[in-house]
């Protein structure tokens, strides 16, 4: 089952989620690889195995292996960074941000996709994990790269919709 089939099976109370997912698939804001890469990485960040498996099926012929590898790499890195930097942001008794992170982050420069596409993927994970520091950092890099507010907002919307799909799966099961 892919994501479209899952959301089409949702009960009436989740009709908005179904309509929002259909809408993002039909928009022309992101190109195909950006759209499906964001869907895939967002499914990972929700930690729903059912959604992850459905997303893998949904994107299998829509993005190439290089882009898929970058999605996996971005998720691997952001699943660490968003938790760590959320800690440095939320801990108020000491300025942990003044200390070196001492975390290896080589994949930030080792991926084989555009910097902008990689930043969009990272932003989607930061939105779902809820790291304000990461959200701001990736949003600033995207804006400095002349990525429009609409594109940035669309990445955040996709992350929110995928998160809602995962939560609807959880409560409907």
Short description:
With about 170 residues, this protein is mainly α.
List the helices and strands and how they pair.
Blueprint (H helix, E strand, L loop, with lengths): L2 H6 L6 H12 L5 H15 L2 H11 L5 H26 L16 H4 L4 H15 L2 H13 L4 H24 L1
Helix pairs in contact: 2-9, 3-4, 3-5, 3-7, 3-9, 5-7, 7-8, 7-9
How would you sum up this structure, described in words?
- This protein is mainly α.
- Helix content is 73%, strand content 0%.
- The two termini are 15 Å apart.
- The chain contains 9 helices and no strands.
- The mean pLDDT is 95.
Keywords:
173 residues; mainly alpha; 0% strand
Give the helices and strands as they follow along the chain.
HHHHHHHHH
Contiguous uncertain segments of 5+ residues: none
The tally of helices reads 9
Strand content: under 5%
Q: Which overall shape is indicated by the principal axes computed on the Cα atoms?
A: globular
């Amino acid at each position: 089952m892919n994501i479209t089939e899952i959301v089409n099976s949702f009960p009436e109370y989740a009709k908005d989620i179904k309509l929002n997912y259909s809408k993002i698939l039909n928009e022309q804001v992101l190109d195909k690889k950006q759209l499906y890469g964001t869907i895939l990485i967002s499914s990972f960040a929700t930690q729903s195995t059912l959604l992850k498996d459905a997303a893998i099926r949904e994107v299998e012929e829509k993005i190439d292996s290089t882009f898929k590898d970058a999605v996996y790499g971005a998720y691997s890195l952001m699943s660490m960074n968003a938790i760590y930097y959320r800690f440095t942001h939320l801990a108020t008794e000491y300025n942990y941000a003044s200390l070196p992170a001492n975390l290896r982050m080589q994949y930030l420069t080792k991926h084989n996709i555009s910097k902008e596409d990689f930043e969009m993927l990272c932003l989607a994970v930061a939105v779902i994990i809820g790291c304000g520091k990461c959200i701001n950092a990736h949003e600033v890099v995207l804006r400095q790269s002349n990525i429009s507010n609409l594109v940035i907002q669309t990445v955040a919307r996709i992350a929110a919709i995928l998160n809602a799909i995962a939560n609807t799966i959880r409560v409907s099961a």
